[in-house]
Amino acid sequence: MPAIKQKFFLSLHDFGFLLNGLDDIIRLKKIYKDFKITCFLIPMSKLFYIPENIKHFKVKKYKEWAKIINSYEWMEIGLHGFAHTYNEMDCSYPKATETIKATENFLNEIGLHYKKLFVAPYWQYSWDSLLVLKEKGYTVGIDRNHQRPIPEGLKTYIYNWSYEEELPKNKNIIKGHGHLGKGQFKNGLEQCYYNIINQISVNAKFGFVSELAQE
User: In whole angstroms, how large is the CA radius of gyration of the chain?
Assistant: First the structure.
């Protein structure tokens, strides 16, 4: 039986200004000619308020960083909440509306381009927040391991490969999922780097999560 031709739609959570991980993403880019990746951004991470980070947080520097990210044609940005706190999107309809509006306004202010893709911090949604995301035209990431009822008509995205796992051999569309950061997750890019490059051919084809959302 001939091998299945696979296309890879890779995503990473916890991407952002002053956060770890961009260097590891660029390492992957150097290996794969067709490389593309979708990064879910934390616009105002709670880590910004750690004393050693506060002195580096300047809107001017954030805007300069945004210009660099916008120049990466191989990267697209989705939203990962606003501050990435527990229950941030497990909330009322007005609160969800306020959070999404604040996120969009902030990214527009700093000039960072983004797609209408959304993953709630810790995968925590209320029914009302899902309704708001649907009404605003977002495609929503749902945890593979904790699937849930969703409003009719809401577009969703569910990964089928976590980066610490063996690559699925029987799927032609691979929806990869992992995290950035230092050793916090079993599917962290830093610790799974070699598991990824040892399983994905250098000639592999890649796409963006937003392309799946359009299907």
Answer: 17
